[in-house]
Hints:
- By secondary structure, the chain is α/β, with parallel strands linked by helices.
- Helix content is about 35%, strand content about 20%.
- The strands form six sheets. Strands 5, 6, 10, 11, 12, 13, 14 and 15 form an eight-stranded mixed beta sheet that branches. An eight-stranded parallel beta barrel has the order 20-21-22-25-26-27-28-29, surrounded by seven helices. A six-stranded mixed beta sheet has the order 8-2-1-9-17-16, sandwiched between helices.
- It is globular, with a radius of gyration of 30 Å.
- Flavin mononucleotide binds next to strand 21 and helix 26.
- The site of flavin-adenine dinucleotide (FAD) has 33 residues, from helix 1, strand 2, strand 3 and helix 12.
Amino acid sequence: MPGRRDRVAERVAVIGGGPGGLYAAALLKRLDPDRSVTVWERGAPEDTFGFGVVFSDETVGGIESADPVVYAGMRKEFVRWDAIDIRHRDRLTRSGGHGFAALDRRRLLALLYARCRDLGVDVRIRTSAPTAAELAADHDLVVAADGAHSATRTAHADVFRPRLTAHDCRYIWLSADLPLDAFRFEVLETPYGVMQAHAYPYRRGASTFVVEMAEEVWRRAGFDRLSGDLPDGTEGTIASCEKLFAGVLEGRALHGNRSRWQSFTTVANGRWRHGRIVLLGDAAHTAHFSIGSGTKLAMEDALALAASLREQPDVDAALAAYESERRPVVESTQRAALASLEWFERLGSYVDQPPTQFAFNLLTRSRRVTHGNLRLRDREFTDGVERGFGAPPGTPPMFTPFTLRGLTLRNRVVVSPMDMYVARDGVPGDFHLVHLGARALGGAGLVMTEMVCVSPNGRITPGCTGLWNDEQEAAWRRITDFVHRQGGTGQGGTGQGGPGHDAPGTAIGLQLGHSGRKGSTRLMWEGIDQPLPDGNWPLVAPSALPYREGVNQVPHALTGRELAGIRDRFAAAAERGARAGFDLLELHCAHGYLLSSFLSPLTNRRTDRYGGDLAGRLRFPLEVLDAVRAVWPSRKPLSVRISATDWAPGGATGDDAVAVARALADHGADVVDVSTGQVVADERPAFGRSYQTPFADRIRNETGLPVIAVGAISSWDDVNSLLLAGRADLCALARPHLYDPHWTLHAAAEQSYAGPAAPWPAPYLAGSRPPPTGRTDAPKPRLTLDS
Length: 787
Ligand SMILES: Cc1cc2nc3c(=O)[nH]c(=O)nc-3n(C[C@H](O)[C@H](O)[C@H](O)COP(=O)(O)OP(=O)(O)OC[C@H]3O[C@@H](n4cnc5c(N)ncnc54)[C@H](O)[C@@H]3O)c2cc1C
Ligand SMILES: Cc1cc2nc3c(=O)[nH]c(=O)nc-3n(C[C@H](O)[C@H](O)[C@H](O)COP(=O)(O)O)c2cc1C
């Protein structure tokens, strides 16, 4: 490695001697011993904060191959373990097979200092660094590893564009004289509220012990009054934590080390480099400690920076390569960390879950670890979770039935509503029959129609279906008949279900909606939300606000009498829907269409009784719900789809969604289908794997209402995980069903499930196994000889 062709970055300055800065310095020096590397650290290794530093098996591997000397030193210090213990309501649940290693942060720093010294890095301890701008004047590269409060980042905020987000919980890093052999999560229900400890061993007989709780719990417990009492502000806090966690600590002591109560701040930057200055470690990004230590990320950054400098022709290219390599990894970790952090913020709403489900919920909180992962690691643990959920042996959770009023769904998969835009005059035709019919044969428990419009002007596009006349009603009847004939009645009837099966068949649900201000647009593939080239019809909305200024029509603000007319249209369509044989009705109150735009404060600016506070904004959707519920058969369930957040400042939030769900339930909704956004054009959604499920989770766990989760749920493993964790009762998948109409049947085959909840249609039985590939059919070589 040493002795490179032409040197990139001859003179390197590193601001900050934390793990990120020191490791980067050591690697850069090792790559090129002739390079000059100087580290400025205003403190000293012995007065550092913190206790143990955790690494997963994966990061340890990277460190091992980059610098075996550092790795060998770390290995000697490592405490290793592979279990996670969760104590909740006096029950300890263990999940095994995880693979962690930790060491004392002070030992790690001492190792890195020693390595830097041995390699010839100039480490200047107890010395404040010159500013990055000053250093850049006579260095080829300035590594700003100056921590979460980075002064470099602040000085060049116009370029780095930092975003700092402070979160609700309070936490403090402590250590305990506790010999743990696993990661330990302690959930403590106190008179002040729920508190949690995240603990893990880092040397023989000692464990890091992070105490965390919601801000209001922290105040009720009086920690705000204790936080500034003695030199490091911790004595009162420590005594109090020792008392509170006495059962866990079994009389052992807690210790501080420059510890103080903090609120976690997520640091992100629009850009990580500025000329020859580059951010590294906490200066560039932070991720909540519950998902993986900042130390690990900082050291991984150092690895990537060193590798990029080795591979690229100049500093500029190297810094670009470093940022483009690390940014997606860090952002993905930050998304997972945010999910984890928010889960801990909501911990109080999960404590009533049975201990095994609670443990599973905690382990899968970031939505990266799934049922499948945990099953591979520790089958005994997941078997217990599945039993607790009520899944019969050998039955994946997604294949357990679910009942809403008089409708029993044979499994938990829903074909999410998808507009096909191929109707003529609102009449569903052969395409709809084949499309919905194929998905009904494909095994889902419930197949939803697209948004079916209650009036011609309530359509989104000229290709949308409707249910305002007899012809449409008859055409829908043809479809529901097919679904029921081929997949059973959907109401506990015998259905097809394969030979010998007696299970509910496929159910079909009708989604009813009105486009509001998002109507009169082109077909999806001709330009989503673009007005028609000609023949536009007038739009209506709560307020005269266009979807996009200068692009979409300004809608007419509906009068009270017009509202009553639209309400009656919904009721009339619901009556037709019942006659057409639908099993479930869903009211579309999402995505910025008419009912949704009443709910959002960004689109409803009315000053009459249909606007104003949430109660006012809910009034019209609830009047429609009441009218629909009154005519919809009482044995049949009613769902409401909402946008649980507008993803826009001043818009509806997750808190509003919980209140909306409660109101909907009071007016007869049986289940809430929890989508998000599409209400305003300038939304900023946080897309990612199953990114909408935290909203469904909140509604389910805070109101007790059944929920349908939807959005970027693509694998059956995710479906099983969401169900087992108690985040959803049903999972709706849209695009995966365009890719594969037999999604559910294939999920069953892949899980070796052949029971009644996923019956192959009899004519398809011969194809119910994946076709063998040519390769596996070929005879295996019997004898191989060297030439
Ligand atoms: C109280 C506390 C306890 C923690 N405990 C743990 C733990 O137990 N385990 C764990 O994995 N993570 C822990 N963390 C998180 C972890 O410390 C960081 O994520 C990690 O250290 C990041 O490494 P870094 O090198 O980027 O930054 P840091 O470790 O923060 O290092 C930055 C360094 O820069 C120095 N510096 C800043 N400005 C200047 C300047 N102008 N001149 C000279 N020096 C400067 C600082 O003194 C500091 O040493 C803890 C964090 C805090 C706040
Ligand atoms: C082609 C298409 C049409 C859609 N039409 C509707 C619709 O009519 N009503 C509705 O509520 N959602 C509609 N959606 C949204 C989906 O139901 C679903 O919420 C979204 O696609 C996220 O799920 P997915 O990640 O599984 O695709 C549509 C989505 C697609 C891809």
